[in-house]
């Protein structure tokens, strides 16, 4: 039995709040006395090797490299943060499905670096979407910080896949099933996964 997978990108709270001003936030008042703003694994993502992991490491990338792992049907592909950060937007195809991975929000904090999550290292955000909207395949370019434009309609889009101006204003791209995780974990669960190399 396979549970239904849903998109789980990591975005900054500022981006979330701007896009979803009425969005709900989980309460920290759980009655359990846990400090949700604290990182129980301080400096985990800066360690040379992952601890609490006994599997074989895929040496194509450093174990602690972050990736956007995208799943389309039975196919998948990893997009390393270090690669997509350089190009800001990737127009690609997975299993015949046109996809786009957008990069931005350079200030998104890591939950795995500093003891206090709010002081975590800035790691950025990568988010994947379907490039087909209303039957038309769109091709995206980066035109500014967290701002993108499709070549076909000259519509301007934000990092969370919403058209903010132009002919398609108000439309939203469909997010792909995806995760943001460390390379060793993605590779462990997706052995031999193809990787976008630029």
Summarize the helix and strand pattern as letters: HEEHEEEEEEEEEEH
Total of DSSP H or I helical runs spanning 4+ residues:
3
Q: Record the strand order, biggest sheet.
A: 8-9-10-11
Low-confidence stretches: none
Estimate what percentage of residues fall within beta strands.
Answer: 25-35%
Provide the helix percentage.
Answer: 10-25%
Alpha-carbon distance between the two ends: 35 Å
Describe the largest sheet.
4 strands, antiparallel
Count every beta strand, where a strand is a DSSP E run of 2 or more residues. 12
Shape call: globular
Let me know the average pLDDT.
Answer: 93
> Which structural class do you get from the secondary structure elements?
mainly beta
How large, in whole angstroms, is the Cα Rg?
A: 18 Å
Report on the architecture of this protein:
- Helices cover 11% and strands 29% of the residues.
- The protein has 198 residues and is mainly β.
- It is globular.
- The mean pLDDT is 93.
């Amino acid at each position: 039995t396979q549970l239904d997978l849903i998109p789980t990108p990591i975005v900054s709270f500022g981006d979330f709040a701007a896009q979803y001003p009425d969005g709900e936030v989980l309460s920290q008042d759980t009655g359990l006395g846990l400090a949700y703003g604290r990182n129980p694994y301080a400096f985990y993502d800066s360690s040379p090797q992952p601890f609490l992991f006994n599997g074989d490491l895929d040496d194509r990338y450093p174990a602690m490299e972050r990736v956007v792992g995208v799943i389309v049907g039975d196919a998948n592909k990893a997009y390393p943060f270090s690669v997509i950060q350089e190009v800001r937007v990737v127009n690609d195809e997975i299993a015949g499905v046109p996809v786009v991975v957008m990069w931005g929000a350079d200030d998104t904090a890591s939950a795995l670096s500093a003891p206090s999550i709010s002081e975590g290292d800035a790691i950025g955000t990568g988010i994947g979407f379907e490039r087909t909207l209303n039957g038309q395949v769109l091709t995206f370019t980066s035109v500014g910080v967290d701002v993108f434009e499709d070549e076909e309609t000259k519509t301007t889009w934000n990092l969370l896949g919403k058209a903010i101006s132009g002919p398609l204003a108000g439309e939203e791209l469909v997010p792909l099933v995806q995760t943001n995780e460390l390379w060793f974990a993605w590779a462990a669960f997706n052995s031999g996964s193809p990787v976008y190399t630029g």
